[in-house]
From TrEMBL:
Stated name of the protein: TetR family transcriptional regulator
Molecular function via GO: DNA-binding transcription factor activity; transcription cis-regulatory region binding
DNA-binding span(s): 28-47
A matching Pfam family: TetR_N
Alphabetical keyword list: DNA-binding, Transcription, Transcription regulation
Residue ranges of every copy of the HTH tetR-type domain listed in the record: 6-65
Amino acid sequence: MGRARTVEDEDILKAARLAFLDRGQLATTREIAEAAGISQAVLYQRFGSKDDLFFAAMAPPPPDLDGLLGDPPRAPEETEAYLADVAERLYRYFETVAPLFVQLATHTAFRADHLADAHQPMMESGLVGALGIRLGDLAQKGRIRSGDGSAMAGLLISVVHGEALSAALLKTPPDGERRRETIRLLWRGLSPTGTSE
């Protein structure tokens, strides 16, 4: 009978994620193993190679769809503020995952499918799909202009994701006012009356 694991894989991945975010590919398996409280041999038994460990550690956490979308607005006049709140929560999520994407894209063993796998939780079956359904519901209630909810969701997510990725690449501080202005501009197209209120 084998020994029970005292250090879970997620604890190893957390130690690896911190090391890779701090030092990139220069992080060693020795320092990661020490930080996780295991031997290098155990690390390799669990993950096979440093590259396998890297790609497992840099996989972004799945989005908390309920937390990101929040409760729908109760009154029509709350819709623009609701969209601004969703955009802010999306930004905070992307702010945490953008550095992971940067590390993925700059790894020497990077392949396009790594990035596709990392973005999968945001595709139609995930975040884009859930936000698209929410926007479709708002359109049916007359809270926003009717249209393809998935297209509207994709636009909002792309803008916020792009801002977070740009901030991670350029090391610029978050710009909440820019996000609010973006929502005001989007609202002009989404508003059932066609203008910002």
